[in-house]
């Protein structure tokens, strides 16, 4: 079991392309013991597209299990991405579509919330998709955000 945890931690560390900064949180469910359940808001910069920042809101389970890092967070998240600086269009055109740009664990080992980037060349936009999955079964709950890159080609 220890080897599995170490391997999962190593893979999560390597796979997580972007680092998020905490913006704030709001409590949505009171817990008698431990922290309340919260909705966290984080921001991360797209590591391959400087000039794009994505704001991610996601539920985080509190209570004793949440405080100890043993709780499984709900598979619900929302995303809003915006252009916050100049974007190199030539670099964007060379990107692989469907690339994971952000990942955050939603349980001790098997569940994660992730953000995947797509490039729609016809409309000249970047599309960011967030969803939560598990090793065995995922959730169809998702959210997208679109960043226009200028006039369509």
Automatic annotation (TrEMBL):
The name this protein goes by in its record: CreA protein
InterPro entries (UniProt xref): Uncharacterised_CreA (IPR010292)
Record keywords: Signal
Taxonomic classification: Bacteria, Pseudomonadati, Pseudomonadota, Alphaproteobacteria, Hyphomicrobiales
GO CC terms of this entry: cytosol
Residues annotated as signal peptide: 1-20
Top-level taxonomic group: Bacteria
Signal as UniProt keyword: yes
């Amino acid at each position: 079991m220890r080897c599995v945890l170490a391997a999962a931690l190593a893979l999560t560390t390597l796979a997580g392309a972007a680092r998020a900064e905490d913006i704030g949180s709001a409590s949505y469910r009171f817990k008698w013991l431990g922290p309340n359940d919260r909705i966290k808001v984080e921001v991360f910069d797209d590591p391959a597209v400087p000039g794009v920042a994505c704001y991610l809101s996601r539920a985080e389970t509190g209570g004793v299990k949440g405080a100890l890092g043993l709780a499984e967070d709900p598979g619900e998240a929302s995303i809003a991405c915006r252009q916050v600086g100049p974007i190199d269009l030539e670099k964007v055109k060379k990107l692989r579509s469907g690339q994971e740009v952000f990942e955050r664990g939603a349980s001790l080992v098997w569940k994660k919330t992730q953000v995947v980037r797509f490039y729609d060349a016809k409309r000249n936009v970047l599309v960011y998709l967030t969803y939560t999955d598990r090793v065995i079964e995922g959730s169809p709950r998702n959210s997208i955000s679109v960043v226009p890159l200028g006039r369509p080609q």
